[in-house]
Amino acid sequence: MADPHATPVSPISQVLQSIGLTRDDLLRHSDQMRQFLTTEDANSLRAFAAGSSDAQNAIVSMIRSSRARSHSRSVSRPSASTVSQTPPPSTPVKSEPMEPAIPLRHMDSMEMILERKNRQAKREKRGKKEKERPAPSPSPASAGFSLDAFMQSRDSRRVPPADQPEFSTSTTSQETQKDTLPTLPVTPQHKNYYRDYDTVEPPSSRPKKDTLAPTHSPTPARSRATSTSSYAPPIVNEPLDANPVTPRRNHYYKSPLPSSSPPQSSPFATPSARQVINLVSSPGPMGPLPNEDEYDELPYKLPAGPYSTTRPDLSYAALIGQAILSSAEHRLTLQEIYDWITIVYPYFKRNETTWMNSIRHVLSTTVCFRKVMRDRSLGRTQWAIWDCDLECFANGNFRKEFCAELREAAKKAPPKKRAVDDSASGRKSKRQKKAVLESSSPAVPTAPAPQVPFHPSFGPMPQFLPLFPPLAPTYHQSYYDRCTQLPADVIFPPLPSSSNYVHVVSTSESLGNEASSVPLSSAIKSSDIPQTSPTPQSSSIPALTPNCSSSSPQMPSEDHSQTDIHVKVNKEPSPPLETGLTLVDKRGSDNVERKQDVTANKTPSKKSVALPPMPESPTLDRRPKSKKPGKRAPIPPPSADGSYPRPCTPPPRPTTPRNRGATQLSAVRTPLSHKGLHMSPSASLVHYKSHLDPPPPSTFHQDDGINPAVFDIENVRTPSRRRGHRENGSTLFPPVTPKKLVFPAPSSTIESPFRTPGSRSIFDPHDPSALLDEEFATLGNKVGQESPVGLFGGRRGLLYESPSISSPGKWF
DNA sequence: TCTTGTTTACAATACC
DNA sequence: GGTATTGTAAACAAGA
Fold first, then answer.
1. What is the CB neighbour count within 10 angstroms for residue A694?
2. pLDDT in tens, A791-807
3. Which residue has the higher pLDDT, A724 or A385?
4. Strand B and chain A: which residues 206-245 have CB closer than 7 Å?
5. What is the pTM of this model?
6. How would DSSP label each residue in A649-682?
7. Measured from the CB, is A429 under 7 Å from any atom of strand B?
8. Distance A132 CA to C11 C1' (A)
9. Which of A85-89, A106-110, A319-323, A377-381 has the lowest mean pLDDT?
10. Which of A691, A778, A340 minimizes the C-alpha distance to A516?
11. Measuring from the CA of residue A141 to each C1', which nucleotide is nearest?
């Protein structure tokens, strides 16, 4: 123990020695740096840096050494705190600064180092603050805001140039200008492009602003890049522009919003707290970007490379897609999306309302972005991209043509004009074109260079979609997740011949009337249908319906949509599951599979199914009405935590094409509009109201009394979540762990690979078979217990027709 | 009051 | 010119 050098101990001293510096020197440098930070005078820093290359080297080496040893953040932390805050000279502060170690990225300049230091310090402080402060857990947002807002308000007024200068200096480029501007004259108008103003931003209140300044919020990464056009190469950190301006420092309030995603402790999450340093001046909720280390913590991954401050050529949808796909689970909260965008594309600043509004607008209107409701306690709703829609976001771009729904629709419906082609050659916005031209470089395609790294999907997209190995892995995948991640096929394996039918029959009893009505149809009802099948009408629904009910079909539908994509992949994963099952068929034709599985049913495969009859139903448009009703039917809340897997299966949503592009309708979320629509309007409306507005699930429960989960199933694709939360209202129900159901589950042990053999008792919400069974059962009840086949074959009509007739509620 | 989400409307642009 | 896409602005509602 006794290391003689305990004090100096660390390699630092060694380094210093090697360098020829003394600790005093180091301290001095540190002080200088601090001053710099405090002052944020880039110039000084540079001067400093220039002057003391030695110091830098030393620091760097230190860092490296430290890193090499271990990440030991903790170790340095203590010191770090000091640093940030004008550290007491007493402690050799230094050490800490570096410790963060430079990430893989090159920290070329001292600035980078400093930033890191600050970050660390912030973190520490953050932690402290959190502890000290109420730190409202879950819904940080509000908290964050308040604080931020407060600070900002202050800052904004004060904000003096000080901040700006700081940043500005760092930024150098455009950003600086912008940033500075804000304070200027600008009126706070949010409107048009005042991004600059952001800093000031007042009105809106967004917190932002904070002062990161002190710390120079330089977001690490972002700062670097300025490259306008594309996102520069991944890592390059160029100090250059680096100047890093932290692109948004001002904006950094950013994450005041942490609120959104509760689960993660994303740095952002507690942003406000974070910057302890300047609390006084500015709490700076935002906090600098997390270090690489921190990145892990974030719900999303940030692309490496410098971030261009220029406006990306990508559409908002593409940006959103990148953001969402950068998350392991492919879902982020609005806040997180904002954060991601502001970080990766500094061009977008937190304070601005324009782009944020656009983001929201796109989320709401774009089908591919599915809303996932979560328990409030967990946080706000998340926006997800389903596997089936990954193609849409290939290469970081957004091509609606590839939306599962659209594709399906396209299949059924005559290809519209541009539909498919477009994607590739299709129209591009000017920006895109420019981008393309300009940068053959990665701009567009790779544009989101960042993405590339994280998005597995991007690369090979299609195939992998279902798997998502890349991202997900990091996160904990709960059982549920895994299941969900599995290809739709797997998840919803073709009905095991054995189980379903039998089940159906048997279950019918339990189901009872209502159940029948409710469950299936209901399940399908608003939420499901719409959600599940994007193009419900078009393909998905029909397909589904054929089987029995929309619900069941949905599953398939999902497949459908994804079929193309997933198919290949699925096979791999699925095998185990399906052993018995014949997933294969599905792929080939989901429909078919079902048929087979269903065995008896020859129900037309979905495709054939197209059964449009029903879905087509007219109501597509109704959306408008829905307005309130249900806004979008959010997808059932996954386990908010993430347990919720991305629904691979694209629920067939009725893409009711509003007027505009189909793309806009978001299937999932806006159930009302989209969903219900297809079915008979009246019915749908009713149904929605009943379901959406009120707790829909309730009906279900009662119906069978069986599993809530089952009900969810109805919803289609993702089996479970809904039940949980809704029923309980709050409970997210952890889909993950299979519940033991009370009810009898007769026989289908074999059915789902997931479930423990032989025991149906264990309820596996994810178990497709179970779901299907439920549905069938329900159908059976309705139908009269006809064999599934009967349902399909004969029933088809019934199904479709019945909805309205038999029970409006059901369908919608 | 703020955030989030939805919806509508309009304008600009691109494609056919 | 019509249609589609995208972006923007705004109104509104719901929830915290």
1. 12
2. 333 333 333 333 333 33
3. A385
4. 206-207
5. 0.39
6. SPPP------SS-GGGS-TTT-IIIIIIHHS-HH
7. yes
8. 41
9. A85-89
10. A778
11. B3
